[in-house]
């Protein structure tokens, strides 16, 4: 097992096990597993990644004199994590809420009541706790939604999260999405006003909305897209978070993007309804999504807890969307934490691997490390532009070392990890 030296800034990581998705196609493999790698780090950036030759750590090798080598002995490495969908405004409110009715709409009702008492200090304290946990877990890019019901002005939490995004920018870049009910976009002028307000409220913002059969309005969705285009905003929607097969938000969005030629980037989170629809209908929707720049996000923890939820009844459906079918079509799929310790989800820790573990089981995902861990690491899938793999030559050496995990059982035993930021260990374990 890998035991790090006391020097927290290694020049060379040898015998490192990287995930298959990150390696070039001609990378050697043995027994269907990629060969181990040597990763050289210079001035906090990746200098090279090459197949391990087995000779770098030979005692007395003059080529390695003065080089701080960590022999990982096959320990797993992932690039720094992305948590693409969270709710820092709502987090950690659960202990003060009392009984909450099961299901999504019950959680929304409980949250609305609590929200009326929010103060700047309350939101800041809870959100900072979340950022701290995420940073320690190895997250290097986070996106949070923020409830926004006000037709005029901005909610308290939006401004608090802006302050926090500024304060944390050097450690953990934070993007904000306005989570607005669709009815706010029924009036075209109001939609435009809201988008202008969002666009003026700082960098890293997205126009968001809650699209559900309980508030379905295709004209409002169109206005949301038109307003985003007017102000050059990307979009991030809570989409079809339900098991009603009649939910058609995702299909409508895919058609709308094509029809109006929307040029911005679009994220659709949840998409649970696909799992309740007739197979042919759901697959036709995914075919349409594959022709757009939509990135899908799946949120297994909340879906498992909120979908098909009734008191004293075991759920029959899991709510996870059709992520295997999406990937086969080349659709970008991310996996994220969503709600943490609030009425929507009482568990969670801002370690994206916790949600990932739930997703592996709920979605029966094959090769979680070599294939699906990509869904935790692709920050470039949250924006337009060319693909940009992490951990490339010249890029920052931001990565996680899972010294007790294996490629066969991942993500089991990943709790114990070393986080390297710019090539330096955040915190070495006490030896
Ligand atoms: Zn959410």
Brief summary:
This protein has ten helices and 18 strands. It is an alpha/beta fold and 431 residues long.
Q: What does this protein look like?
A:
By secondary structure, the chain is α/β, with parallel strands linked by helices. 27% of the residues lie in helices and 20% in strands. A hairpin with a 2-residue loop joins strand 4 and strand 5. Helix 6 packs parallel to helix 7. The two termini are 14 Å apart. The site of zinc ion has 6 residues, from loops.
Features:
globular; single chain; 10 helices; binds zinc ion; 431 residues; alpha/beta; 8-stranded parallel sheet
Order of helices and strands: EEEEEEEEHHEHEHEHEHEHEHHEHEEE
Residues in β-strands, percent: 15-25%
Quaternary organisation: single chain
Which hetero compounds are present in the coordinates? Answer: zinc ion
Structural class: alpha/beta
List the helices and strands and how they pair.
Layout lengths: L11 E5 L12 E2 L2 E2 L2 E6 L2 E7 L17 E3 L4 E4 L1 E6 L17 H12 L4 H18 L1 E9 L8 H12 L6 E6 L8 H12 L5 E7 L6 H13 L4 E5 L9 H12 L5 E5 L8 H12 L3 E5 L1 H7 L16 H6 L3 E4 L16 H11 L36 E4 L15 E4 L2 E2 L6
Parallel strand pairs: 1-6, 8-9, 9-10, 10-11, 11-12, 12-13, 13-14, 14-15
Antiparallel strand pairs: 1-4, 2-3, 4-5, 7-16, 16-17, 17-18
Helix pairs in contact: 2-3, 4-5, 5-6, 6-7
Bound molecules: zinc ion.
Zinc ion binds next to loops.
């Amino acid at each position: 097992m890998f035991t790090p030296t006391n020097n927290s800034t290694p020049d060379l990581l040898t015998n490192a096990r990287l995930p298959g998705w990150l390696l070039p196609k001609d990378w050697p493999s043995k027994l269907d597993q990629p060969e181990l790698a040597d990763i050289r780090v210079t001035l906090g950036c990746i200098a090279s990644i090459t197949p391990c030759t087995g000779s770098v750590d030979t005692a007395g090798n003059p080529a390695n004199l003065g080089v701080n080598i960590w022999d990982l002995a096959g320990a797993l490495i992932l690039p720094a994590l992305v948590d693409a969908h969270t709710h820092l405004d709502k987090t950690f409110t659960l202990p003060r809420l009392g009984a909450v009715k099961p299901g999504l709409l019950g959680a929304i009702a409980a949250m609305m009541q609590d929200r009326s008492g929010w103060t700047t200090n309350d939101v800041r304290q809870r959100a900072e706790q979340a950022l701290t946990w995420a940073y320690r877990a190895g997250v290097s890019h986070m996106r949070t939604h923020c409830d926004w019901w006000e037709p005029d002005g901005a909610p308290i939490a939006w401004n608090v999260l802006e302050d926090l995004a500024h304060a944390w920018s050097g450690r953990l870049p934070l993007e904000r999405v306005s989570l607005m009910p669709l009815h706010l976009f029924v009036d075209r002028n109001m939609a435009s006003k809201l988008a202008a307000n969002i666009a003026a409220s700082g960098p890293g913002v997205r126009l968001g909305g809650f699209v559900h059969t309980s508030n379905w309005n295709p004209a409002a969705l169109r206005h949301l897209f038109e307003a985003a285009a007017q102000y050059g905003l990307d979009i991030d929607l809570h989409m079809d978070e339900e098991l009603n097969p009649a939910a058609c938000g995702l299909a409508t969005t895919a058609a709308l993007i094509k029809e109006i030629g929307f040029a911005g980037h679009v994220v659709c989170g949840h998409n649970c309804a696909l799992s309740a629809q007739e197979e042919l209908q759901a697959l036709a929707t995914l075919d349409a999504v594959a022709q757009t720049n939509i990135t899908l996000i799946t949120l297994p923890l909340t879906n498992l807890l909120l979908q098909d939820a009734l008191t004293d009844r075991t759920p029959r459906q899991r709510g996870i969307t059709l992520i295997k079918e999406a990937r086969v079509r080349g659709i970008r799929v991310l996996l994220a934490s969503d709600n943490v310790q609030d009425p929507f989800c009482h568990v969670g820790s801002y370690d994206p691997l916790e949600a990932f573990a739930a997703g592996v089981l709920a979605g029966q995902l094959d090769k979680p490390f070599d294939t699906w861990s990509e869904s935790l690491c692709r920050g470039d899938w949250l924006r337009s532009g060319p693909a940009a793999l992490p951990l490339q030559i010249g890029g920052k050496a931001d990565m996680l070392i899972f010294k007790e995990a294996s490629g066969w059982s991942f993500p089991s035993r990943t709790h114990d990890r070393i986080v390297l930021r710019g090539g330096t260990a955040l915190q070495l374990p006490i030896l």
